[in-house]
Every structure is written in C-alpha cells, then in structure tokens.
Amino acid sequence: xxxxxxxxxxxxxxxxxxxxxxxxxxxxxxxxxxxxxxxxxxxxxxxxxxxxxxxxxxxxxxxxxxxxxxxxxxxxxxxxxxxxxxxxxxxxxxxxxxxxxxxxxxxxxxxxxxxxxxxxxxxxxxxxxxxxxxxxxxxxxxxxxxxxxxxxxxxxxxxxxxxxxxxxxxxxxxxxxxxxxxxxxxxxxxxxxxxxxxxxxxxxxxxxxxxxxxxxxxxxxxxxxxxxxxxxxxxxxxxxxxxxxxxxxxxxxxxxxxxxxxxxxxxxxxxxxxxxxxxxxxxxxxxxxxxxxxxxxxxxxxxxxxxxxxxxxxxxxxxxxxxxxxxxxxxxxxxxxxxxxxxxxxxxxxx
Length: 351
Description:
Largest sheet: 6 strands, parallel
Helix content: 40-55%
CATH class of the largest domain: Alpha Beta
CATH topology of the largest domain: Rossmann fold
Number of domains: 3
Number of strands: 12
CATH superfamily of the largest domain: Response regulator
Distance between the termini: 63 Å
Order of helices and strands: HHHHEHEHEHEEHEHEHEHEEHEEH
Structural class: alpha/beta
CATH architecture of the largest domain: 3-Layer(aba) Sandwich
Strand order of the largest sheet: 2-1-3-4-5-11
Radius of gyration: 26 Å
C-alpha cells in the first residue's frame, strides 16, 4: 500500500517511526497477537490508527479486536484450601457460565507480586470483568483494571478502588459469640473465658469480627480479658502454637474458643489431637467459617456459614450496572447450620 504522503508503499518501519514504537511491537499489533504479549490496548489502538493513516493494510483480526468481546471473566483468590474460597470459585464459575462467559480462576497465595502479575496477564487476555477475592490490598489491582476499562469487584476484603461485596463479619461475629456465651452459661462456665483466636491485626475482616465479639460482650455487661483476642494469623500452625501456649500456661484449654477462620480451626484440631481424647468436652468451640466435615468431629462445634451464592450474585449485579466511581460496600448476612443448604444442595463442593 502506498504512503499517502510520499506515494511509496508503507511498511511497518514507517508505522514504528510514526508511533515511536519498536517494529516488533508494531508487527504484533498488526498481526493481531498484541494482547498475548501484554501490549497495552491504548498502544495497540494508537498503532492501528497510525497504520490506517499511513494507508497500511491492517489485518482484519487486529482491526476488530477493539470492538470484539472476549467472553472471558476472571477471578483471583488466595488459594483453594478452605471451603469458603473453593465455594467462591465454583459459584463464580457457575454464574459466569450462566451468563455466557468463560471463567478463569487463579490462586495467588496472598503474594502481592503474583497478584499484580496475574491481573496484568488476565487483562492482556481481555477479560470482561475481574473479581478480586481475599486480597489484603486490592487497590493496585483495581487501578490496573480501571486503566484497562475493565470492571473490578472486591470480594471478602474491601478496597478503595472499586465496589466491594463482603460478608457481614461484625454481625456474624456477634451472633456466634452470643451462641457460645449461651452455651458457656448453660454449662455453668464463665463467659469471661471465651477467647477469639486467629486472624490478622489491622485487617478488615479480623477487625470486624473483633468488633462483633466486643458487641456481644458489651451487650451482656461482660469484660473480656486483656488476651481474649489473639490475632495469631490464619495459618493453622500458628493457631496450634498459640493454643499450645495457652494450654501450657493454664494446664487446660480455655472454657470457650471462637476460631477466626477454618484454617485456625484446623490448627486447633491439630493441637488437641495430641491431648487426651476427652479434653474438648469441657470447652465450647465455635468457628467463623463452615465445613460439613465438622459434623463428624468427636466434639460439639458451632460454625458460622458465609453465603457464597449471594456474594457472587451481588458482585455480578454490580458489574452489570457498573459505575467506575462506585465505591459501595455491600454487606451479605451470614447464618448457621442449614440456612443456605437449599440454595447449595446441588453444588459439588457440598457433597
């Protein structure tokens, strides 16, 4: 094709010079493979526009990329090790497919560098939306999505760069604390001995659960001890170590234990497995998380269940009515026992 200014045939060198890009970048844009190599859409569009201005014969695939839909929906989450995140992932996949989208779910192991790299890769593949679950600081990822014009929704932990859908941690923690206090009183125990174990200090979910724990205590005129809330992390080994320290100091378990996650609960089970088999019969146990296998444990445990179906549904509603300026926080109620069983009874992760 002849250059409109010189009459000679335009080449990729002309396009590269006009746009200040490398010939390799121009070549990938013109042959339609730019997204695969993480070239920004803004750069690709600039090169395509300049190529057309110079009369270069643009590949039809490349020319149509801006207007086409990828049909991809992305989600990043820390891991699949507990039922909450596994449930979020499967429910996301189910609801994405019901909307004609192909879901892509990637675990990032709570590594900020991996989170950024994965987000950049998903955006380069032109996902139409991105759900960001359990990321302690989602704001940089929200910014990447905003720059690419892709709606992002934060799940489980909120951020300042996009709307968030969250379990109502505070109300849920208050509800389960109330149940455990009632159980302690029924046994003739002291509710002052109830301990909240696990979580990360300064993190939103932990902070809300601690607030709910205080709310329940305040409502009954109780004053928890100075060490009643122990943010030892979500790691099972850390929870086991923290509980071992309490056991060594008092020669018994606390009268009441509220574990702040299913992984902290795992640590409790791991530690108590080294003790006499009846040791947990004298302790009231609860967990802010749910797993059906708890029904087979040799002690009574109260578990709070987060509504993954509604969390994902609310997130899709936000994408379907997306407002780049929206920073709302949508709170989803939690519940006990069979509250959500009917909605999830056909899900594989419940079988």
